[in-house]
From TrEMBL:
UniProt GO molecular function: transmembrane transporter activity
Membrane-spanning ranges: 42-61, 73-92, 98-119, 131-153, 159-184, 204-225, 237-257, 269-289, 295-313, 325-351, 357-378
Protein name: MFS transporter
Major facilitator superfamily (MFS) profile domain: residues covered: 7-379
PROSITE patterns per the UniProt record, alphabetical: MFS
GO cellular component, one term: plasma membrane
InterPro entries to which the protein is assigned, alphabetical: MFS (IPR011701), MFS_dom (IPR020846), MFS_Efflux_Transporters (IPR050189), MFS_trans_sf (IPR036259)
Amino acid sequence: MTFAPPRTAVLALGTFAVGTSGYVVAGLLPALTGELAVSETAAAQLVTAFAIAYAVGSPLFAAVTGRWERRTLLVAALVVTAIGNALAALAPGYVTLLLARVVTAIGAAVFTPAASAVAAELTSPERRGRAVALVFGGLTVATILGVPLGSVLSQSVGYQAVFALVAAFSLLGAFAVRLVLPAVPAPPPVRLAERFTVAKDPRVLAMLGATVLGCLAAFSVYTFISPVLSATAGVHGTMVSLLLFVYGAGGALGNVLGGRAADRWGARGPLLVVFGGITVVLALLPLVATTVAGAAIVLFLWGLATWSVNPPIQHRLIELSKQNAGLVLSLNASAIYLGVGLSGLVGGAVLNGGGPLLLPEVAAVLTALGAAVVVAGWRNRVKRPALAE
């Protein structure tokens, strides 16, 4: 099949909408704590609620909607995401906002893995890594634009207006997908129990474990970036938003480079390099990010390394299970948000117990463990003719 950038681009537009839905709470943390009168740790549980619902819902709803034509499924998922964000904008209090986040997560849980699988299907094998990276790049752009803009807007119009804008953009994404994407037949039906059989391969488990550790490390710091930067560089408000733009710019470049590196060198080398890079950057963050310039450099490098991880992981998962690419990508999406969900709990515990400066150091240990899991996963070889070694 020929590469079709406009089709892949609208899928990236959709992942931008669901990515902003998932990550925007990090930028809204000061507004949420002020308007809802809750602690930073309690506000961060809005990330946890979204992420856990996503992690549980991704394989479940993938099974329920397995026979749906893919374009229809993608449009419906974005509409549900829009409804969840609209409910968040109208939520009268913390508990109802938590419930709205769960609804939003259901739409995101269906959209992201389906979009990645469709992009891979519509792309020639030699460019598959870049196509998946482009779709996943919508999540990166969410960190570049969605989260910082949400942070800036929340300071003047409140967090409710930000959720309303994300709802509107989700509907725009649904319209674009319906207009540009061709009808894509559903893959062969697979029962829910069968969806987990691909995870019996220890190499697949290793990649999923690396995803969990990488996301847990990244979001343990990113979710609480406002108190971290306040403690290191003494910055607040708009300056934090600007530094989030810098992080996102690094992430955009990292996502592109990660996809190209996977296409050229495979997954193992790039994964070890970026996990090592993340470990070093996080370990040095409290020492280097003591000025605005130092914080900008560290956040750019951190974003560059962090967002280079997922393209080679997805490349490896597709390589290991070509016949079940949608299944393993769905499991990887669950692993991403399991890590994000745990980050609210782990990060909150570290913040309360040791303060914000301890967060990057704990995260560095987690990324080092992620590198070890990658190495162990490659050593564990399973002889299966259908799987690529």
